[in-house]
Please model this.
Amino acid sequence: MKNNKRTRVGSEAQYGPRLAGEILHDYLENSNEPLARAYREHTSEVEAEVQGWHHNTDLAVDLKTILRRDRFMKTGKTYQGILRRDSDTEIEDFRCRDPHYTFVETQLPMAEKRNPHVFIGKYITITRRDDGSLRPNFRPLKMGRDFSLERYALGVSNELLWGLEGLVEV
Model:
């Protein structure tokens, strides 16, 4: 006698070939195995520790540019415009899980600010000069009863690291 009580979940398309990354992602996100649980705990701890510069960084995005004169964005050139997040849903056709952004260069170029700030901290600011070089600038020193030279020096060095981390390629 044949067992006809076989249960199927989902559609026929679900049983087709799948990408290895998709299988691994499903395993790590949904399994109760020790490896998957440890992975989920580790990623939640890492997300909780994210601070400073990396807190506002969006990695691996899909960006569409609509420029006035250039066909492609040029390295080091500043563009004035509007950056809009279009979607962050999964696109089934391409297996894309990255958020999608569109940058539209404005019709009327705004007056470009001379030496714009690229990092603003409590102790220093970093500006970009017209030739593309970076210049750290000290903010006014506030000396009071609680002033500590060691704390001030440590704060300056930390801000230099945070500010230059995303701007300088090593």
About this structure: Residues 117 and 127 are 4 Å apart (CA to CA).
